[in-house]
Amino acid sequence: MNEYLPGLEGVPATKSNISDIDGDKGILSYRGYPISQLAEHSTFEETTLLLLDGQLPTSDTLAVFDDQLRKNRRVKYNIRNMMMSLPATGHPMEMLQTAVASLGMFYPGSECLTGGDACADLDYVRNMTVKIIARMPVMVTMWEHIRNGYDPVAPRADLNYAANFLYMFTGQEHDPFVVDIFDKCLILHAEHTINASTFAALVAGSTLTSPYGVVAAAIGTLSGPLHGGANEKVVAMLKQIGSPSKVKAWLDNALANKEKIWGMGHREYNVKDPRATILQKFMESYIKQKGGKLSALFETALALEEVAQERLGAKGVYPNVDYYSGILYSEIGIPVDQFTSIFAVARSAGWLAHWREQLSNNRIFRPTQVYTGSPTRDYVPIKKRRAP
Ligand code: COA
């Protein structure tokens, strides 16, 4: 195949049985289970096992996995020292990429990968997977305190994944209602077929680099505003708009200037992203629980969605997962520049499920290109060159 398709639109990059998207009906499923059902009934721990193993776990299997996640939350104090030497003004995603990549230094052991053709040792794969997923929220929250000049809050093994994540952010236990919503947000962000960061993870994994290298590559890719970084941009955009009454004029101007409406549009969906629909409902129930007062950001977002539908609906541009997630995280009190880190923590489940799938039938990614450069020519000595 020599046809070049920009952005590899519609080009299958792998075979996978982990998740699926029906972009016309707006359905996302993990291992066949619709995301709406998982968000209603599952937990992040259970959904992670589903993604990794392909089936819903029994209560015994889940208990073992949950226990492993709780026991692997501590990280070596030299990781804290390393973070203390990073500039406090650095972006949390850059810190996270650095910290995850550094785990290879602090916890070496990629023999399984380098010893053979590909890793057949599922214990090794599970062990590394557990350690990374357990430590990601720890590193994100350690940084929140370190960059503000404080010691990190120690993890607590008596709290579930979502509760401990929020606890480590603030040093306080959160309302169970908020923990439950946060847990569901992690489920919604855990996996999404071969998106850009998962593709980066596959490419890295196909070289048999360590899982830290795989996840660090994926984190760097997720950071961009066209991908996970959009949730931060959405909040800035809504603040800039200011109020629902200003939405129409703002949108007219933005579209006339060919600006992007952050948190809208998706290569795979022609309708509203099902995760955005669920997050919008979470936001509504959060508001109800907190006394019914609509936040200015949410009001503006609802108005923008309505007007944007008239202008962009024909192109299949509707809210995606990043549209409502940032508004919800803002309400919970999470700093805006940490939104994408939360996305990365949740998505580590999907990345590592794909890493395992890649290793099970590995072949290095080495695509081709359409060369558009000069024909072969002779080297010209510098004295004989003329300015172009
Ligand atoms: N705002 C305004 N117009 C948009 C748009 C947006 N957010 N997303 C897509 N469009 C328009 C494009 O301008 C293009 O219009 P045209 O055909 O008249 O030129 C059309 O819809 C197709 O867009 P395209 O950029 O080709 O889609 P893509 O599949 O290459 O890009 C995204 C997908 C996600 C990168 C893109 O929708 C985007 O940049 N969205 C904003 C960033 C974002 O929210 N990212 C998070 C994704 S989960």
The average pLDDT is: 94
By secondary-structure content and strand pairing, the structural class works out as mainly alpha
Task: Summarize the helix and strand pattern as letters.
Answer: EEEHHHHHHHHHHHHHHHHH
Radius of gyration: 22 Å
Give the key terms.
single chain, 388 residues, mainly alpha, Citrate Synthase, domain 1, Cytochrome p450-Terp, domain 2, 2 domains, 3-stranded antiparallel β-sheet, globular, binds coenzyme A
Q: Could you characterize the architecture of this molecule?
A:
This protein is an all-alpha fold. It folds into 2 domains: 30-228 and 340-360, Citrate Synthase, domain 1 (Orthogonal Bundle), CATH 1.10.580; 230-332, Cytochrome p450-Terp, domain 2 (Orthogonal Bundle). It has helices at residues 35-41, 44-53, 59-71, 77-84, 92-106, 111-115, 122-146, 161-170, 176-189, 196-206, 211-222, 230-241, 247-256, 274-289, 296-312, 321-332, 339-360; strands at 19-22, 27-30, 33-34. The chain has a 3-stranded antiparallel beta sheet. A hairpin with a 2-residue loop joins strand 2 (27-30) and strand 3. It is globular, with a radius of gyration of 22 Å. The mean pLDDT is 94. The protein binds coenzyme A. Residues 7, 226-227, 230, 260-267, 312, 315, 317, 320-322 line the site of coenzyme A.
Compact description:
This protein is mainly α. It is built from 17 helices and three strands.
List the SSEs and their pairings.
Layout: E1 19-22, E2 27-30, E3 33-34, H1 35-41, H2 44-53, H3 59-71, H4 77-84, H5 92-106, H6 111-115, H7 122-146, H8 161-170, H9 176-189, H10 196-206, H11 211-222, H12 230-241, H13 247-256, H14 274-289, H15 296-312, H16 321-332, H17 339-360
Antiparallel strand pairs: 1-2, 2-3
Coenzyme A binds next to helix 16.
